[in-house]
UniProtKB/TrEMBL annotation:
Keyword annotations: Membrane, Transmembrane, Transmembrane helix
EAL domain mapped to chain residues: 23-279
Organism: Polymorphospora lycopeni
Lineage: Bacteria, Bacillati, Actinomycetota, Actinomycetes, Micromonosporales
Keyword Transmembrane helix on entry: yes
Coiled coil: none
Identification of the protein by name: EAL domain-containing protein
């Protein structure tokens, strides 16, 4: 059924390029979805590269259009950003993700405590009182700030630094961690990186997926890992799809990973089941 949805969407996408009317319809449908809260979240494990032990999950938003089926987030998040709907969607994602982590921490009581990593768009950071929203969500669910990491893309961090950086610094002061998403695809200078209010670099999938074929890519990843170490940042490799990639990344000193090799994004119940299962640490 999921495959059908994707095919329907592809067909739709092919016909939509110049069809402004249909784009407006999609916007309207998205606005309805926001008021009716018809989104869901999938959760993809973030693991220790060697053992596969689960450290946390990245929350990934999903939207099933009533007739078009599953619309990829890369598509509707872009529309939501243009229209400002991303703020309401982002608020929902934040609350839902924090609620999920509260549940996981109950399942895992007394053992290691997983976190949830939430994608945040530049619009959300710019909105007033973002810090208050995050702490309100944490308080409502009774979750410690260490239960949440926020992912900001490298490019949006570079775009509006002052305002966004101040918000992120304030979040880190209360104990929320911040990751640079898609690292390596923007153009952070070394002096910027040193000052950025972040804890974690997520190495973009474009590096992971070329690492096995190219010594140059390996050298780049090694340089990123070294840089992260120097700056005291944690590194997570995105898009790990094969054992070869996992092993190369491990050899280059990258301790954490995420990708189809470990697990596809999972529905909430499956993520919880994974945490309570025998393979969880
Ligand atoms: P992202 O933040 O870089 O998320 C990682 C994307 O890579 C996800 O796609 C995930 O399903 C996919 N992925 C994970 N492992 C692998 C792998 O091994 N191979 C390959 N080929 N892909 C892998 P998804 O779920 O389609 O999300 C796409 C983008 O949509 C995300 O990229 C993020 O930028 C955005 N997005 C998703 N959820 C949210 C959200 O709640 N808020 C915001 N603002 N953006 C979101
Ligand atoms: Ca992300
Ligand atoms: Ca990413
Ligand atoms: Ca991405």
């Amino acid at each position: 059924a999921k495959g059908d949805g994707k095919r329907r969407w592809r067909r739709y996408e092919a016909s939509v390029h110049t069809a402004i009317v249909e784009r407006l319809e999609l916007r309207a449908a998205l606005a309805r979805a926001v008021s009716e809260r018809t989104f869901t979240l999938d959760y993809q494990p973030i693991v220790v590269m060697g053992s596969g032990a689960i450290l946390g999950f990245e929350a990934l938003v999903r939207w099933r259009h009533p007739t078009l089926g599953f619309v990829p987030p890369a598509e509707f998040v872009a529309i939501a950003e243009e229209t400002g709907l991303i703020e309401a969607i982002g608020d929902w994602v934040l609350h839902e993700a924090v609620r999920a982590v509260a549940g996981w921490r109950q399942v895992r009581a007394g053992r290691a405590t997983p976190y949830v990593s939430v994608n945040v768009s530049a619009h959300q950071l710019r909105a007033p009182a973002f810090v208050d929203k995050v702490s309100a969500a944490l308080t409502a669910a009774g979750v410690d700030p260490s239960g949440v990491m926020l992912e900001i893309t490298e490019s949006s961090l570079l775009r509006d630094d002052d305002r966004a950086w101040a918000e992120l610094a304030a979040l880190r002061r209360i104990g929320v961690r911040v990751a640079i998403d898609d690292f390596g695809t923007g153009f952070s200078s070394l002096s910027y990186l040193q000052r950025m209010p972040v804890d974690v670099l997520k190495i973009d999938r474009s590096f992971t997926s070329t690492i096995s074929g190219s010594p140059r890519q390996r050298a780049l990843v090694e340089a990123i890992v070294g840089l992260a170490g120097t700056l005291g940042l944690e590194v997570i490799a995105e898009g790990v799809e094969s054992r070869v990639e996992r092993d190369l990344l491990g050899d280059l000193g990258c301790p954490y990973g995420q990708g189809y090799l470990f697990s596809r994004p999972l529905a909430a119940a499956a993520a919880t089941a994974l945490l309570s299962g025998p393979t969880a640490v």
